[in-house]
Design brief:
It is built from 4 helices and no strands. With about 60 residues, it is mostly helical.
Length: about 60
């Protein structure tokens, strides 16, 4: 698949809350042979953001 197709599919998966699969496709898009700087930047930023969101813990809610 082309980098843009991978990016589009990853964004669709992200919108459907399928984060693990989306992260895999974002990484594939960033490593595709035809990747542009913009697609690579978007892909890697999306992976970083999703990992940050998934790893978030609100300690105030855990300690009443």
């Amino acid at each position: 698949m082309a980098a843009q197709e991978l990016l589009d599919k990853a964004e669709e998966l992200r919108r459907n809350c399928r984060f693990g699969e989306a992260i895999n496709l974002y990484r594939a898009a960033a490593q595709a042979p035809d990747v542009t700087d913009e697609i690579k930047r978007k892909s890697l930023a999306s992976v970083e953001l999703m990992q940050e969101i998934n790893g978030f813990v609100n300690t105030d809610l855990m300690n009443p």
